[in-house]
Amino acid sequence: MGLEDIMFRHPSGTGKASLGAWVLGITTALIVTGVAAQAQERVGTGTVTTEFELDSEPDSILRALYDLESNRDAKCHSTASRFESFVCGTNLSIESREVRFDLQKELVQKLWIAASRRAVDAGQPFVTAMHVQPLIDRVFTATELETTEQLVTFGTGLGVKVSPVRAEQYGSIAYALRAVLSVQQDFFVYGGEVPLTLESSGVDALREMLDTVTLSVLIEADRQARADSAPQITGAAMDAAWRRAVPADLSFDDEAPEAKRTQPASAELRASAADIVQQIIKKKLESYEKYNDITPRKRTVLMIRNMGKFYARYPMPPLARGQQRVMGVYDSAVTAFSRDLISDAAARAEKAGRPLINPGDAEEALEALLPQWTDDFEDIHVFTRLGEGERIKLEAYDCDSLRDFGFHWMWIRAALAGMPDVKQHLDPFAAEIVAEGISQYGVLLPRIAGEIARERQDSGQLEPHHLELAVAEIKRRSMSDHAAPPPPPADTKIVSTPAEVPVTGDVYFTDVTAASGVAYEHRSSNWLNDFRRKWTGDASKIDKGGLPTFSGSGIASEDIDNDGDMDLLLVGGAGAALMLNDGSGRFTDATAASGLNLTNPSDEISEARQPIIADFDNDGIQDVLVSLTNDNHRLFRGTGGARFEDVTESCGLGGADMIGGPATAFDFDNDGRLDVYIGYFGSYLTGATPTLVRNNTNALANRLFRNVGGMRFEDVTEGSGTAETGWTQAVSHVDFDRDGRQDLVVANDFGCNSFLRNMGDGTFENYATRYGVDLAYHSMNVGISDLNRDGFPEIYISNIATFIKDSKYALPHVNTPMSLNYKALGRMIVKEASMLYMSQSSNGQLQGYKPGDNIERGTMSIGWGWDAEFMDFDNDGDDDLYVLNGSNEYNVYFTTLQTIARAGDKPIHHYISHDREMNVFFVNQGGKLINRTAESGAGIRANSRSAVYLDFDHDGDLDVAVNNFHAPALVLRNNSEAHGNGWLTVRLVGDPRRKVNRDAIGARLILTGADGLQVTREIQGGSGYLSTHPKTQHFGVGDAKAANLTVFWPNGDTQQFTGLKPGNDYTIQIGDKRARRVQPGAAAARR
Question: Distance (Å, rounded) from C-alpha 557 to C-alpha 571?
Fold first, then answer.
């Protein structure tokens, strides 16, 4: 017997239904009631009679809704809301969306009524674009600019530039049509002046008008939010932005006043209001069926599969009868929840004296029954006030797959059929929210049922009683969540010193690249360039844009030749460039004589990613590790005088045929030798791509190597808990819980980051969820500083959140490969999502992290962020932040030429690019990181990747060197010495006999002084994005005359040093009684 022959029967009843009709069992006949308006209406003291019947019908609006959503994906409420936030650039609060709904309806109602008068005056029974457009012209005009943008100028004088691509994308979601339907429904409920039936051109005119106005207002609201450094657009902010475009007193009362027609509310009209919801459901189901192109049989087969594989994550019964029983209980439970949700919302509307359920009623009812919040990727976090074992995260693609079947609208229809006496009707916006909540419950119910089945172990398959128990469990958790105390407010303060840099016309940094002698231009290796252009693997992936062959340019700085000043090492597909500093900031290329040769056995230059300069054999001479892609990582032993011996063949670090990149050197087992952790990406060499699962774990595993001495390493990954399989872009180490052991922070693309706590026995445990840092983004960087001075590190992760509006996924699931179609990606929207995670501690213990909001947004966004690390550029005693941006200049992934057709005219060819974004510079002032890019001189527009901070000219402030992608490197001189703030440097020297590596990597230094001076530094062996900074630690001390230093050595020893004087370089060897002053350039004294 085939699945199409299965008959479902609820276990408590005798009725049966075909599988195609299935579940969702009750079918409600749709009653389409046309309502004729009054032909005669008393106006003033007389009666005006028309020669035609005045109708107000929603059919043309519903047809437009079907035409739009059946071709452009019927975006659910959360997706539409997320998209709107991306288009805006600033997140919208729930209140702001409700305000926007009301303002949209207000404008539509004014225009529609005025257009109806114009139609009546012209003797026409319906409204066309001809009646609407002259009124729209009184609200705004649009002019095409040379850039192909539209300048929308409102009657208030407000002007907003709108991208034609964003306008086309915004118009592809039915925001405006819902508003027009809602105005129609209001008339059916309340009566009043008659809005004549809209002819299709009239619908289009109102829709296009409302989309233009709303998109312009969102852009204006975002502009103001950035000016105010507001993280969210509130209801008041939305209202203010709207009123700057469309004033409250906008009136069209002068339009044909003698043609005014009114109709009082009636039972007949109110019946039409209820019928609008039924007609919306009908059009929604038709849209889903056409868009996803799926038969009822296939839909049912997929639903049963998804129940077991993705929703419950527990086997479904193998036989039809067992499936019937499970699905019958499931259908009844979700229908019951749907009735409860609508009843709760209706009760709230009734209490407020409203005959219609509005979005606020629906939101409150959903929160009461299913407490949850939605993140930037539409993942639903349920029961967030409960313990870790009771919280649930529903991935967006699980909810999406259920919605693609249209079941959530079927459940609304079934619920309404069982509620004949309900008096309050859903308005179109509220209906979307209710449908969204039902789809969430439709995934949550089997998810918890699966948990119960695994816990009870009473059956090897999902049973009806598991679902029944899950219904009760959801109610219990909801009640417990509401009863639980709200989480304490996060402490996200940043501590700034009083000695702030004045904002002047002087730039902080000057580009001195030409004078510095640094002449390095990054490029990808020949083999990678060929691979990008000639890969002929999976044809479907070629058609979808190819593979994510992201690569980057690494940089390191250290005193390589031991002469007392900081040198540079830059790497890429063109090889390595060793630049030796003469002490004045003038660099000489010493690569040829150094032995740092990155040529592979095929006599081609390898694709180099990250350079690490460290003393791996503890002989007092710096060695070099360069991570590679598709080749063994290169290890070079320093022999002195900036000369190196290649020991790759015997080092044991591997890397051939793998996509390596980020790496860090640290002593994880505190044996006095530097170990290595190397991150890996997905193997695009074998055609690997990320899937639609939120947290991709299909990349190559990261590897942990233990240093066994003699420049040899052994792979100790297995069983260590470090074999992360996310698409790793950056790694760093820090003792984040201050237990004396170095932990790992892993930043992953296409998924969640990992905070790997060192357990002290050679194993690591991922604390990301426990610490509250497990959101999924595209992460590129790990930057570390103690900004709140609580003794625990803050972590800055440069993320991007993307919305790819134009990729079509019919019936997606977590294993669906991600489409990398260059046209869709070129039209993607990138929203700021970088996270400054502020440590939350209590009684000297790290409790977790919370996103900090004390970082100014400013007029420019943090775009495609890469390296982003802290430094005290102005020597005032607090840390500032430099964020590198940019993608690439290929016409793939990030750029596209978009053609937008226009009826009766030439199409617009609009070029979109995400490349060469401006680097952003933040200054720590007044308890915030203030965006000072404009005056910094560091706001370079480039495709930057990695940076190091070093005082290359010995003037006491930190300069910057940047390695750009497929572009020349940059050298920026710091001009902050003019401010007169004090500084000092400290270089630590360990002793492997005391279980401290020679470079003292992993040591922590805290400098204190008068007026609250407290600066923390940690010596790292690789951080940020492909960056390795000097191990000499730079401290700004403001106007302090002296300072005290506490050193926490990796072996657990602690030493204190007092009376350090600004303007000096110090060296401290473990066990020394005092810090030794060193003259710049005195190499011997530094070691």
Answer: 12
Count up the domains in the chain and report the number: 4
Q: Write down the pLDDT at residue 88.
A: 81
What value does the mean pLDDT of the chain take?
86
Q: How far apart are CA 167 and CA 575, in angstroms?
A: 44
SS3 (DSSP) at 404: helix
Residue 904 lies in a domain: no
- State the DSSP code for 948: E
Q: What is the tens place of the pLDDT at every residue in 988-1005?
A: 999 999 999 999 999 999
Q: pLDDT tens across 827-870, in order?
A: 556 666 788 999 999 999 999 999 998 988 765 556 678 999 99
Q: Quote the CA–CA distance of 723 and 720 in Å, as a whole number.
A: 7
3-state secondary structure of 470: helix
Position 54 scores a pLDDT of 54
Lowest mean pLDDT among 30-44, 155-169, 447-461, 762-776: 30-44
Check whether 9 has a pLDDT greater than 50: no
Give, in order, the Cα–Cα distances in Å from 471 to each of 311, 331, 544, 723: 15, 12, 42, 38
- Helix 94-121 with 175-190: angle, nearest 10 deg: 70
372: β partners? 382
Distance of CA 460 to the CA centre of its chain: 38
CA distance 445 to 399: 12
Asked if residue 556 and residue 477 are part of one domain, the reply reads no
The pLDDT of residue 103 is: 97
Buried b (16+ CB within 10 A) or exposed e, 700-716: bbbbbbbbeeebbbeeb
The CATH number of the domain where 892 resides is what?
2.130.10.10
| pLDDT tops 50 at residue 717 | yes
Q: What is the CATH number of the domain that holds 1057?
A: 2.60.40
Q: What separation in angstroms does the CA of 882 have from each of 293, 865, 929?
A: 49, 10, 11
Number of neighbouring beta carbons within 10 Å of residue 471: 20
578, amino acid identity: L
Tell me the two tokens of residue 522: 């990054």
Q: Specify the CATH number for the domain of residue 59.
A: 1.10.20.10
